[in-house]
Amino acid sequence: MEVSSLVWWITISAMTLALLSDVIIVGRRPHVPSMRECTAYLVFYVSMALIFGLFVWWEWGGRYAGEFYAGWLTEYSLSVDNLFVFLLIMAKFRVPERLQQSALLVGIVIAIILRGVFIALGAAVINSYAWVFYIFGAFLIYTAVKLAREGESDDEEYEENRLLMFVERKFSATSEFQGTKLTVVQDGKRLITPMFIVILALGTTDLLFALDSIPAIYGLTKEPYLVLTANIFALMGLRQLYFLIGGLLKRLVYLSLGLAVLLAFIGVKLMLHAVHENNLPFINGGMPVHSVPDIPISVSLGAIVLILGVTTVASLWKSARDRKAEAAGLPEEQMVAPTDEDTPLL
Length: 346
What we know:
Layout: H1 5-28, H2 35-60, H3 62-92, H4 97-128, H5 132-150, H6 162-170, E1 183-186, E2 189-192, H7 194-218, H8 224-235, H9 238-244, H10 246-249, H11 255-277, E3 282-283, E4 287-288, H12 297-328
Antiparallel strand pairs: 1-2, 3-4
Helix pairs in contact: 1-4, 2-3, 2-9, 3-7, 3-8, 3-11, 3-12, 4-7, 4-8, 5-11, 6-7, 11-12
């Protein structure tokens, strides 16, 4: 895939302009966005991603368009998992609703910068050492097993990492938020604000999620241009999605399990692809390398859509069933269909 310097600069400039516009709008008027505002922005960003995929199709072909869509959907699903942690952070630090939008925006900017660094490093390593696919694949499978063991999503409290605890211990902070300010001067002394701690929490969380998302998308495409654009499009609209489906996130009880299956699938795909990239002549003492399947992007895209679809439908079904059980005042295990023995005879 040949991408000219002009296309790179136009793409980065356009996305930077869109991000700056968002920053200016929120910076001038911190507020709680309405459902209509969130929906309009979200539809716009999703439409732009779909149109960009068509542009990739027209310019470079269907294979690369499929890689973009697969990468975008994967990064978007992982970003939704980020939102659940963001909700816990906002609750933990009691961030006022009108300031949450500003905190999220700064967190997203940090995420874009961090992912840009990881994407550049990943591209350099992959180009130099093809065996790194084995490491990426093994890491994704390990992450999948870890997610699967966590089971259903729940309302666990956010646990502060060591960096946050160090900052809170070493630096004096104000007891209340001072708007969007990160530091203030009181009695001649510079103090950090709770907003500084919140943004640090969001940033460190983004760093941890980048460690999963970058290997995942490199399992779907090796093109840095597609990796970068898929990540940015997945992060655009994340702020609006936070306010739009905050309540829905709690109903996606199987999100962790779905992501576990998704990451495991990509991890296996990476391991199989690594066999071809390293040109291993034989496997298990006699099986030729060409007999090892290399999963095409069309199958990957279909699997991703199926996994995410089943996860969403199953989660919403269970949540609805639990709500009915709660409304009826019965434990979930009693919500079963009547048997023939329970049916009265006429």
